[in-house]
Amino acid sequence: MAESMKVLIVDDEEDLIVTLVERLEIRGFEAVAVQTGKAALEQIQNSPFDVVVLDIKLKGEDGVEVMKRIKQIKSNLPVILLTGHMSKETNEEGLKAGAIDYIIKPINIDDLIVKLQEAVELYS
Amino acid sequence: MTDRQTDTPGRSRTGIVFFGRIMANVSHEFNNVITVISELAGLLKDLSLMAQQGREIQPKKVLSISENIAKQVARGKHLTSHMNRFSHSADEDCTGVDMQGVVENMLVLTDRLFKNRKSSIDFVLPEEACNLHTDPFELRRILFACLDCFLDASSPEVSVTLKRLDEKGTLELCITGPQGEVSKDFSAQIEELKRQTADLKGQLIFEQKDQQLRFRLTLPSNRE
User: Fold this and answer.
1) How distant is the Cα of B115 from the closest Cα of chain A, in angstroms?
2) Complex ipTM, two decimals?
3) Does this model's pTM top 0.80?
4) Domain tally, chain B
């Protein structure tokens, strides 16, 4: 159910995450956004989330490494990777590392919502 | 189109690899600009649909979104302007070059790439015009290679200074920063950079003192 879904968004692009949070909240999600892997791990340790949307390339950080650290804290927390790459190989690497799905920028909000719902259903 | 003076098969390949790295980095940045604009446009659509359903939308909110779109468009334009400058640097193999413009061009195009390495580069602007007659593309390639090599051994805050050394118009560009972890092939990379700099009739000197590293790149006012 969208109303009970809490999403953590991790991307270093501030204007993007602020807008994405607003658009998800309009659609009934509860959304929190941070810009670094460190901030993401702090959020996950302190609050329950249903799903994480994580940029694969954060400034100065490898998104896949951040994802692995997330999984160490909460192994059953689904992570959807946000990527600018059209390369199938790059995106499949993320899936092999533990992501449940990926979405390519620019984001189609309807596609994102479907992926969020599928991710939560799979892990519930 | 004539062959560039500095072209050999190996050198051409190096140039292509350089061009590819820069374009990959810039395309990533440009995609981020498009993504933000797309989200902002999507938000405007969301608000319009809400207004159609009778919900009150604040004009200030709409204005803020449109201003943000304008900001991203300006950011995108800044990037494409520098991409264009970079692309046209390959047009001629010896022409008048504004060295300050070259440094600024490369720092804009590599901003995210070097920030991803947790480095920040402070460019101290020269006090006077720094022009030379050389290969603009090779100059950019060597400058990038120097920064790339230097940042492998120094972080996180690096400064770049540029000045005229003498009345003949010889330029000196210095890259300075604290010594970090130096890799085994750092010396070999420096020797290769010295060789490449010599192709532009320039000189690269590496200095290491008191936990500080420095590259001193000197270039003649006219390569020919």
Assistant:
1) 6
2) 0.92
3) yes
4) 2
